[in-house]
Structures are given as structure tokens and as C-alpha cells.
UniProtKB/TrEMBL annotation:
The protein, known as: TRAM domain-containing protein
Any Pfam family the entry gives: TRAM
Region of interest: Disordered: 49-78
Superkingdom in the source lineage: Archaea
TRAM domain sequence ranges: 72-131
């Protein structure tokens, strides 16, 4: 199945009858996250739910809502790191808290460097080398 690049959100819901109409409720979280706006018109795709007892059990306790995690680094922040790997484009890769990936050009694997974060995205950050650090320091 091909999913459109324009997909705004994806959630499970139950079709309910109300006053002669059928309604699917949109979870409040989808509006809070900013992908949807109240009183706007959207196209909906309806797919069957998996045929398992767990998916069809409406008495189940809902999962606690998890707050979206923010990246553990900020632009302008400096850190001393070890380059763990080299990516497909030849750039160094290091990981910080929670395995968050930072890409550092012009580095070699196992090299220890002080970096400055230049760009932070949801799942990855980019940094420049400020200083090459000796392992004996």
C-alpha cells in the first residue's frame, strides 16, 4: 500500500452512530501536535483493523499518552565526542543521549573531537569540528 507524503496523522478509531450519522472521533492529541486544525476539511482513508482479540477489545485500558521527545542537543552547543562510525556519504557519526545521531563531516572513525552543533532536526543533528582532541588529555 502506498502512503501519501501528505499524510498528517494516523490513528485508530471506532465508527459510532450518532443521531443518524456515523462519526469517527479524532484524538485531541492530533490537534495539539499541530498537524490538524479544528473546522478544516480533510480526506480520510478507512482501513480494517487487525483481526486480533487485543485490537478489538474496547474494554482495554488505554495506553498512557507519551509526550514527544525533543532532541537532546541544541544549536550552538559544544561537546567532546568520539566518532563511532562513518556514514554512506563519508561523514562521521556519533551518538549522544538516547542514541540520538549527530553527523560530523571531515572526521575519521574512532577520532575524538570537540564539536559545535550547527543544525538540529527531529531525528538527527549536524555539527562542525571545533577541535581535534588527543585521547591522552
Amino acid at each position: 500500500m502506498k502512503i501519501s507524503e501528505e499524510l498528517r496523522c494516523l490513528f485508530s478509531g471506532k465508527v459510532e452512530e450518532r443521531d443518524g450519522s456515523y462519526v469517527v472521533e479524532v484524538p485531541e492529541q492530533e490537534l495539539r501536535l499541530g498537524e490538524l486544525q479544528a473546522d478544516e476539511t480533510y480526506r480520510l482513508a478507512v482501513l480494517p483493523a487487525p483481526a486480533t482479540n487485543e485490537a478489538n477489545n474496547t474494554d482495554a485500558t488505554p495506553e498512557p499518552e507519551q509526550a514527544p521527545q525533543t532532541p537532546p542537543v541544541e544549536a550552538g552547543e559544544q561537546r567532546t565526542v568520539e566518532i563511532e562510525d562513518i556514514g554512506d556519504q563519508g561523514d562521521g557519526i556519533t551518538r549522544v543521549e538516547r542514541g540520538f545521531v549527530v553527523i560530523v563531516p571531515d572526521t575519521k572513525q574512532t577520532e575524538r573531537v570537540t564539536i559545535e552543533i550547527t543544525d538540529v532536526r527531529e531525528n538527527v543533528a549536524f555539527a562542525e569540528v571545533i577541535e581535534r582532541v588527543s585521547y591522552y588529555e
